[in-house]
Every structure is written in C-alpha cells, then in structure tokens.
C-alpha cells in the first residue's frame, strides 16, 4: 500500500475531487436536456448556452491564475464548490415552481463555469502543497483515473435519472455532489501555508505579464492556440449534439447517456 493511501489529506482531497467529478458527469447532459425538454430550446438558444459556458475562460482565464497565487487555495476551493451548489440548486427549485427560464440557465452556466475555472486552477496549485513532491505523479494518476472513470459511469446514470425522475433531479444530484466535496475539503487535515504574494488584488500588469509569457513562449504558445481551436470546434459540436440526438434521432435520455459514455469525452461541459 502506497503512502498516499495513508495520507488523510490527499484522501480527503481525492474524495472531494471524485465526488464532484461523478456529480458533474451525472448532471452535465441534464443542463442541455433541461433547455430542450423543459424550455423547448432550439439551435440558437443552445448556441447562447455554449457561449455562456465558454466566456468565463476568455474573460477570467488569466485572472484566475493570478488570483490563486494571492489567496489560500483551500478556502477558495470550498467557496467555489458551495457557490456552484447554490447556483445549480436554483434550477430544480425554479423548475418545480414554474419559474425556470433560459435567462436563468444562462446566468447559472456562466457563473458556474467561472467558479469551475477558479476551482480547477486552485486545485492544481494546491496538490503540490499538500503532498510530497515524490508522490505527485502517483497523485495525479489517481485523480486522472477517477476523472476518466466518471466519464464512463456518470453519463448513463445521469441519463437514467433524467428519463425516470426528470432533468431537475439530475441537476440537483450535481449540486449535492459539490456540497459533499466542500465538506470533505473543510475536513481536510492540513494547515495551508500563507500565499507568497502579499496582496489579494489582481492588477492589470500581472495579467499583461501572464499573457506575454503564454504567447511568447515557444512551447506555451502552440499549446494555447491548439486549445483555443479545439475548444471552438468542440464547442460547436457540443452545442447541438444533444438537440440532434434527442429531437431528430428520438434518442432517450438514458440512451444519450450511454452514447456519451461510449465516447468517454464531451467538449465544453457545463458546470
């Protein structure tokens, strides 16, 4: 048994990551299905939904990296988990009381993806401060394996929940997973050192330096451009595949989940 299995800090962090990952995959397609099934959304509405999911990366991408260098990471992880849980919980509540709208869905997706952006950046920066350097490869492998497993297991469960209980219930499961993740992070037995940067403010000069480093570096520049192209093309497919499968091919939500699991990957997921 490796040392990581006996490291309570990593076990808590891994449990939080696994819980939120499976919850996200269960509720992910339910976001688009809620627009199609509950709101009767068409291609233009889903295009707006995809834009809401993509804009946070364009607007806050560099700022997120600067922010996490100036604040403690664990409180930031807990806060973004709880905010995402609260945002997602508004969807089933509004649906059950007849107040669900496309505008609300766009706001939830935009703010949720902004929180996801900050969470992912803070999580990557927090792991090296939690465990010894020699265990980083093993820790990353375990977390990636969990993420890959959630891609296979989560969508069929989510599709089945949508088909039997409705999209709001699947989205509520996603919200609950973030609450569980926040609880595990709160229980994490680790005294995080203070941030190296003294100020929590994000300055324009810092963003400018980050931008120049990315696009002047011989390795980072092509990777960044490739990621932008992949996100744009994948987002175009991700916008309409739920609508095509559900309306044109008459695929059930449960079968849709199985199809997504077979691909084990979906571009530009909502929160």
What would your notes on this structure say?
- It is a single chain.
- The chain has 271 residues and is mainly α.
- It has one domain (7-191, 201-263): Growth Hormone, Chain: A.
- 80% of the residues lie in helices and 0% in strands.
- The protein has helices spanning 3-6, 8-39, 43-68, 73-96, 102-130, 136-165, 167-186, 204-216, 220-248, 253-263.
- The chain is globular.
The first-to-last residue Cα distance is 34 Å
Number of structural units classed as domains: 1
Q: How would you name the CATH homologous superfamily?
A: MFS general substrate transporter like domains
Q: Assign the structural class, choosing from mainly alpha, mainly beta, alpha/beta, alpha+beta, or little secondary structure.
A: mainly alpha
Q: Can you tell me the CATH architecture? A: Up-down Bundle
- Give a count of the beta strands, DSSP E runs of length 2 or more: 0
CATH topology: Growth Hormone, Chain: A
User: How many strands, which pairing sense, and closed or not: the largest β-sheet?
Assistant: none
CATH classification, class level: Mainly Alpha
Show unreliable segments.
none
How large, in whole angstroms, is the Cα Rg? Answer: 19 Å
What's the order of the H and E elements? HHHHHHHHHH
Number of contiguous helices? 10
């Amino acid at each position: 048994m490796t040392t990581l299995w006996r490291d309570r800090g990593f076990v808590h962090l891994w449990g939080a990551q696994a819980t939120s990952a499976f919850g996200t995959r269960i509720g992910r397609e339910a976001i688009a299905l809620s627009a199609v099934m509950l709101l009767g959304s068409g291609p233009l509405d889903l295009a707006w939904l995809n834009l809401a999911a993509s804009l946070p990366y364009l607007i806050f991408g560099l700022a997120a990296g600067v922010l996490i260098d100036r604040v403690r990471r664990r409180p930031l992880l807990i806060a973004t988990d709880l905010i995402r849980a609260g945002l997602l919980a508004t969807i089933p509540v509004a649906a059950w009381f007849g107040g669900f709208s496309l505008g609300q869905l766009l706001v939830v997706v935009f703010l949720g993806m902004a929180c996801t952006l900050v969470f992912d950046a803070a999580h990557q920066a927090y792991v090296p401060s939690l465990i010894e350097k020699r265990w980083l490869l093993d820790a990353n492998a375990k977390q990636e394996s969990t993420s890959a497993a959630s891609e296979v297991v989560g969508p069929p469960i989510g599709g089945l929940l949508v088909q039997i209980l409705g999209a709001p219930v699947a989205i509520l499961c996603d919200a609950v997973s973030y609450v569980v993740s926040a609880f595990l992070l709160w229980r994490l037995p680790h005294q995080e050192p203070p941030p190296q940067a003294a100020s929590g403010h994000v300055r324009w000069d810092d963003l400018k330096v980050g931008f120049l480093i990315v696009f002047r570096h011989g390795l980072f520049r092509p990777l960044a451009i490739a990621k932008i192209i992949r996100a744009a093309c994948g987002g175009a497919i991700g916008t309409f595949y739920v609508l095509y499968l559900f309306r044109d091919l008459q695929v059930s939500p449960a079968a849709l989940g199985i199809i997504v699991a077979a691909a084990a990957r979906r571009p530009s997921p909502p929160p």
